[in-house]
Amino acid sequence: AQSVTQLDSQVPVFEEAPVELRCNYSSSVSVYLFWYVQYPNQGLQLLLKYLSGSTLVKGINGFEAEFNKSQTSFHLRKPSVHISDTAEYFCAVSGSARQLTFGSGTQLTVLP
Amino acid sequence: DTEVTQTPKHLVMGMTNKKSLKCEQHMGHRAMYWYKQKAKKPPELMFVYSYEKLSINESVPSRFSPECPNSSLLNLHLHALQPEDSALYLCASSQEDGGSWGTDTQYFGPGTRLTVL
């Protein structure tokens, strides 16, 4: 079985400040980790993914995430956020099954 | 082209109506998915089709009936829905090239906002 915990349901941050959205996972098998973003009234868009190799993964829109196996974490970071980054962010894990297991989501609100 | 399209964008239906949601992709993907998403919640998997055959049904009520007429098209037929079925219905697709299943990226459509009166 696999599960994902997003520790913060809401993260407010001022424009141009750094942000970290936290994600912890549990799985009994090898995991593959994803971050998706959902803008209001839209579908989900892939930000980045970790499959293997380098633990620091760079994605679109200046986001990056670090896979930490010992802490079972995959936190998402951006050094300087913009108003346009306001959205819901979902961490997800998949294993040998075809299913994506999503976390409960983190609403990032960027304040002017 | 990494686009998954869904029609209609919005749908309002009564509890006795029959309607269908449509999803299309032209990326050559062989796996297609239906998800249901309630407000402020993550998507919940409903069905998975692999090579046009139903491979996963997450115990979805029979008032939801999926159909995969060909490798590019996925439908969700709706009948006798309840108000609690109101939600955003998302379609997704992934490559399914015979490699490790867990590594496939799922590409999502914009969703159909369904309201059941």
SSE arrangement:
The complex is a heterodimer of chains A (112) and B (117).
Chain A: E1 2-5, E2 10-14, E3 19-21, E4 24-27, E5 32-38, E6 44-50, E7 56-58, E8 64-68, E9 73-78, E10 87-94, E11 101-102, E12 106-111
Parallel strand pairs in A: 2-12
Antiparallel strand pairs in A: 1-4, 3-9, 5-6, 5-10, 7-8, 8-9, 10-11, 10-12
Chain B: E1 4-7, E2 10-13, E3 18-25, E4 31-37, E5 44-50, E6 53-57, E7 64-70, E8 73-79, E9 87-94, E10 107-108, E11 112-116
Parallel strand pairs in B: 2-11
Antiparallel strand pairs in B: 1-3, 3-8, 4-5, 4-9, 5-6, 7-8, 9-10, 9-11
Fold and architecture overview:
The complex is a heterodimer of chains A (112) and B (117). Chain A is mostly beta strands. Chain A contains no helices and twelve strands. In chain A, 0% of the residues lie in helices and 54% in strands. In chain A, strand 5 and strand 6 form a beta hairpin. Chain B has no helices and eleven strands. The termini of chain B are far apart. In chain B, the strands form two sheets. In chain B, strands 2, 4, 5, 6, 9, 10 and 11 form a seven-stranded mixed sheet that branches. Chain B is mostly beta strands. In chain B, 0% of the residues lie in helices and 55% in strands. Chain A binds chain B through residues 30-32, 34, 36, 41-46, 49, 51, 90, 94-100, 102-105, and chain B through 4, 6, 31, 40-43, 45, 48, 50, 55-56, 90, 92, 100-111, 113.
Helix content of chain B: under 10%
3D shape of chain B:
globular
Distance separating the two termini of chain A: 41 Å
Got a strand count of chain A? 12
Order of secondary-structure elements of chain A:
EEEEEEEEEEEE
Number of strands of chain B: 11
Please summarize the sheet with the most strands of chain A.
6 strands, mixed
- Reading the helices and strands of chain B in chain order gives EEEEEEEEEEE
Structural class of chain A: mainly beta
Q: Could you tell me the mean pLDDT of chain A?
A: 92
